Amino acid sequence: xxxxxxxxxxxxxxxxxxxxxxxxxxxxxxxxxxxxxxxxxxxxxxxxxxxxxxxxxxxxxxxxxxxxxxxxxxxxxxxxxxxxxxxxxxxxxxxxxxxxxxxxxxxxxxxxxxxxxxxxxxxxxxxxxxxxxxxxxxxxxxxxxxxxxxxxxxxxxxxxxxxxxxxxxxxxxxxxx
Length: 177
Prior knowledge:
It is built from 6 helices and 6 strands. The protein is of the alpha/beta class. The protein has one domain: Isochorismatase-like (Rossmann fold, 3-Layer(aba) Sandwich), CATH 3.40.50.850.
């Protein structure tokens, strides 16, 4: 299967304010960067999804929080796709890019678990991508008023695993070379 690594919404907004930082952010970034390194070694395209929302000062085009996180191992040849909803497929060029490059398996990482990641994972399945992977410990969220971030992550992983994605540790990628 031809794969693509899709990294959703890892943007500066999640690192600018100590109260809005992603849960376990240092480990998440380390694992995302390890997955990028793996992708480059294996000639897997890296696609960054960037949330853009004119009504949210943190994610408004050109604002400091809108920028992709400076600690990511991003290169000029990586594809960057902007989205304006929680679904990275909705009114973006993602589907056309995947089709043009004959991609049939998506590998996911990113934020926020219960919002853009969840919506895009489910949308990918609806678009016919039925053999996707989620990199364990390479996605995160913020605490909510109801649940702590680890609970949100655990809940979503239990729903997704072996339905919408297969959850695989970063170690499984590093040893698959």
